[in-house]
Amino acid sequence: MKGVVLAGGLGSRLHPLTKITNKHLLPVYNEPMVYFPIRTLAEAGIREILLVTGGQNAGDFLRLLGNGESFGLRQLNYAYQVGEGGIADALRLAEPFADGDPICVVLGDNLVEKSIARHVEQFRQRGEGAHILLKEVSDPSRFGVPVFEEGRIVRVEEKPEKPASPYAVIGVYFYDSSVFERISRLRPSGRGELEITELNNSYLAEGKLTHSVLDGWWTDAGTFESLLLATNLVAESVTRKEQEKNESSRRLEAVPIHS
Ligand code: DAU
Q1: The pTM is what?
Q2: CA–centroid distance, residue 126 to ligand 1 (Å)
Q3: What pLDDT score was predicted for residue 259?
């Protein structure tokens, strides 16, 4: 399976922070935002990744990430989105890269706490259709929201005023090779974008969309509130990991050496 990170768009909800740089280059605690989705894919065993970006700072990604060696990648590929026609419009550019393989797509402003390796493995074995991940949230109307009937998703609604469930469709998606033909059939939404939610609904209409609920925390970082939340969550994780490391090295030091 190949990986795609989508890091285009205007980041207008973070103005003026994004007036002179791309949202995904902003810091989340101690690292640039784009490190997180790349690491999510790399740590799940995905070694070939395409980063789609746009705007005036595309060259900065190359300077920051190079060929992705520091993430253990075989190669980091790049594509340039002209304009900001939506998430599915950015994904369209991944067609030659995917070259018929299934893909795992991560939105560049999405952070997850735990490994997604289990989902990658399950989709790798299945190889067809699409799979989405859900997380219960307090403010679903900011996101794509699944509508359930008798325990099954019947529709996904993008930013509904009255959410039908407490779940957000998070920005980690699995697609088979029919994804690009499906994108070519999408029409721009009311806000002039090719919506990822409509792409997911096209799989759903054919009974080919499955879902699971994500373990651990998840957040986007595309608004001031969620960027602050992401920063705090990452800071807590980093501190916890450091404490665990210190504790295990203290335990090792305490072990008596027998000669
Ligand atoms: O965070 C999860 C949510 O992301 C989903 O629940 C929604 O269904 C999905 O539409 C999306 O909602 P947002 O309104 O938060 O998406 P946003 O416009 O912030 O775009 C998310 C990422 O997608 C962004 O960080 C970069 C990439 N993107 C976006 C656009 C509009 C592109 O690469 N190109 C684009 O043209």
Answers
A1: 0.96
A2: 26
A3: 60
